[in-house]
Amino acid sequence: MNKYLDSFQEFFGPLSNAQRVMFIGLMVVIITIVGSIFYWSQKTDYSLLFGGLQPEAAQEIVAELNGQGISYELGEGGTIFVPDDQVYELRMQLAALGGGSAKDVKGYELFDTNSLGMTDFMQQVNNKRALEGELARSINSLDQVEFSRIHLVLPERSPFEEASVEASASVILNIKRGSKLTKEQIEGISSLIAGSVESLEATNVTVLDQAGNRLSDEIDLESEFGFGSTQMQLRQKTEAYLTERGQTMLDRVLGAGNSILRVSVIHNFDRLIRESDLIDPDSRTVISEERREQTDANEASEPQPIDQRLPPEERGAPIVVSSNENTSSSETRNYEVNRTREVFEKTQGELENVTASVLLNYKKVNQEGPDGEQVVNYQPYPDEEVEELKEVVMLALGMRQERGDQLSIKQIEFFDKELIDGGNYFTNQPT
Questions:
Q1: Tag placement on the chain: N or C end, fewer CB within 10 Å?
Q2: How far is CA 210 from CA 147, 171, 175, 370, in A?
């Protein structure tokens, strides 16, 4: 040992301080590189086992890995990493736990297997599972949706309509991080499910996200509040449409800012359903005919009185004293007539009344003053022009007098600020 120390002192002693620092630094670098190479050579390389797992499937796979004593690493989005040399074997081994089909939902391939011996109930359950799987596949094809689950309630058909239960559906969507579904896409998902399931209305489809937030419209059209909200929305849309229709026309004729139009509408939301059966008696056709005749004969007899003049064998024999014969006949005919059934349903939300009011700004007229300067005056429109304008507006808004629609036009000078020299403002007054 002393021999090595003496050799090191003989080598290290003659070196200057700078050479010693360089030597020590070089040794540190060499040791670091060698240590890193040794560390990485001893480190286990991990590869992706399964990705995009649902929490239930990931929990089962992790429990199985712990039970076998296999090291693993967890990543975001339901990913599991295992050592490279075991990845293929573990994939085949753990596929039965849901890892291999975490996002592969079974659809109508459920019926590919032999169904011999299955009861009607099991067939119905498989049919519902297959339909849920096919719908989930369609929804999973959306870019924003990572995974989805669908639960259908398909009631059995009942001959008693009042006792039947309406079909319904619930959808749980796992939306990708940073993504969001628009209202139109949510309505499209509801329409897709309603159109794929018999007797299912879009209003009976509930859509939730992975946090439990309801994405579908919460307004119940059957409730009083929901129906009132729908009425208000329809009224607002109709008034906005008619107002824009009339205001744009007035602005083109009178100039922007010279008229104000307001429209109010009343809708009839009463629902009326009338059913009637019309029978045409002239179209009758004999389809069967039956005739019956019956004859009844009644006779009354009395014993003959004992008379010495009668032969002995006829004494006391009955004799007919009255005879009655009745004959009856009946005829039955069955006819087939043309029958027409009409169902009349009055549309809800029919426009019942329209009222509108128009404020007109006074007409701006340029006149020449006493000194030859231009003077601006404001004058009301003549009655003839007001009546013509009233007729045009009523036609543009679809107003009808026989329905009781009313249009009022009033003339008034609008408040108008104009900037003059010096930055002062003045309000024009009528002359």
A1: N
A2: 10, 10, 7, 81
